[in-house]
Amino acid sequence: MGAREAAGGAPGAEASQVAFDGIANRALKTGRHRLLLIAVLFVIANFVVGLRLVDVTVIGDGFEPRFAAAAAGVRKAQFQRADVFDRNGVLLASNLPTASLSADPAKLLDAAEAAARLSRALPGLDRAALQRRLETPRRFVWIKRNLTPAQQARVNRLGLPGVAFHRAERRVYPLGRAFAHVVGFVDIDNRGIAGIEKTFDEELRGVREGPAAPVYLSVDARFQHVLREELARGMQTFQAAGAAGVILDAATGEVLAMVSLPDFDPNDPSQRDGDARFNRASLGAYEMGSTFKVFTVAMALDAGVVTLSDGYDASEPIRVAGFVIRDYKPEKRWLSVPEIFVHSSNIGAAKMALDIGAERQRAFLSRVGLLDPAGVELPEVATPLTPSPWREINTMTIGFGHGVAVSPLQLAAAVAGIVNGGVFHAPTVVKRAPGDPSLGWRVVTPRTSKLLRGLMRLVVAEGTGGKAAVPGYLVGGKTGTAEKTGARGYRREALVSSFVAAFPIDDPRYVVLVLYDEPKGTAATFNYATGGWTAAPTVARVIARVGPMAGIPADDPEGGEAARGLLVKIAAREGPGVAF
């Protein structure tokens, strides 16, 4: 027996040990190689992710421009809304970047404490209501939208876990109340829900093909401020329930100003409900009273039913179908056509309307846009109220402005179609492109238009519209006063008083309409609340202010004599016997 065997060693033990060591070494080397490979892969992956983060956050359009473009498109669709401007580029609506605050209730340490601290940082939050919302099992709760920078800073200093800020944009209206009814407003998600904001919502958001596009309105911020100030002044003076006004480009139908009072601040969501939101200028439907005599006389002259030499007996009231038609200030004599218009005779207008006939009356009113909703780019548009069936009594009362109800905007557009040479243009609140022919259709002959301009000038120079006179300007117009209807018929104490004017009346550029809803007479008006005492003076103040803005020189030294001379010349060709 050898010495190794004597020591207790087996012959194959050493070889087995060597084999085991070799296997272990190989396993160890393989593990090291794998760990090294995994580490390298992690380094490469982190490097790629880092490059991508730099690309997305810093470069933006580096390695994958299509992804950057898509991200920009998402951000644009989510946040951006195009601006709205007036005709001269004055900003009416835009966006401001803001932050909104949310919470993850599951991450809040103490909902009661969080509600208490947040309500102190954000005055106006209901602490109890907020706590109830923060104690819900939901993972997302809005706390407040559209924070100011100061509010965001206060919340940030609280260091509350579970609350987060979100980038957003808030729609703002720099001119506030002035354009509330025209521009409208958006909801909390920046979607239009009233006015131009609603009509052009998709264009402003860029929903359709192409980027979001700004909208340029036809309104003039200067005219709008003047009209609103003067309406507010008159509304307060006469303690009226409401007021409406329109300034229209007589040649194109563009709305240069449109105001409805009471109004609201579109920047404050709490003011967007109730009566203030109602747009009296386009959505209100009123019996407009004697302003309708513009159309009665125009259609009668244009159809050859009467001439300026003709007239009607207005010595006695008309009794028909249980109603009595009388004049407000009766002359009690035969009146010529010019006198019927200038003295605003209901009796004469009713008899003239009968001679025109229901069929021709209805067709004419339809041509000047008074029997269908106004084709203006606003969602708040009135549907005219018309009689059905159209009886003889309706023909007579419509002749002097009772029995049919239209919006002030419709009336202004119809009058523009009479005085501008006889072409009606549907009203628009969107600026027309230069050279746009602004499609319209003829409603009266140029000669009839000229006659009506002369008659409207006489109303201001010698008739019921004297308080609409403006020194230096040729203003023509027509008064209107109508009783409002109630449960038991017409209410004599509740009036709709209006005045519609055109200037310069010899070549009209603008039509101005003012309406007061239920005005009250004052000592200065001898307690009269009719259109000649309430609306006409407001129109005069508006014209006196916007005339110089529009560059119209004040150069009318002759006053009413120019209008009278015009009618005398025309009447001389038509025959003798014309009385003025």
Give a structural overview:
By secondary structure, the protein is of the alpha+beta class. It has two domains: 84-215, Penicillin-binding protein 2a (Domain 2); 224-266 and 277-574, Beta-lactamase, CATH 3.40.710.10. The protein contains 19 helices and 18 strands. It has helices spanning 3-6, 13-59, 65-79, 111-121, 127-134, 149-158, 180-183, 195-199, 201-205, 221-237, 293-303, 337-342, 346-356, 358-367, 392-398, 408-419, 446-462, 535-549, 561-574, and strands spanning 84-85, 91-103, 141-147, 163-172, 185-186, 192-194, 215-216, 242-249, 255-261, 311-313, 318-320, 323-325, 334-336, 423-424, 441-442, 476-486, 489-503, 510-517. The strands form six sheets. Strands 1, 2, 3, 4 and 7 form a five-stranded mixed sheet that branches. Strands 9-8-18-17-16 form a five-stranded antiparallel sheet, with helices on both faces. Strands 5-6 form a two-stranded antiparallel sheet. Helix 17 crosses helix 19.
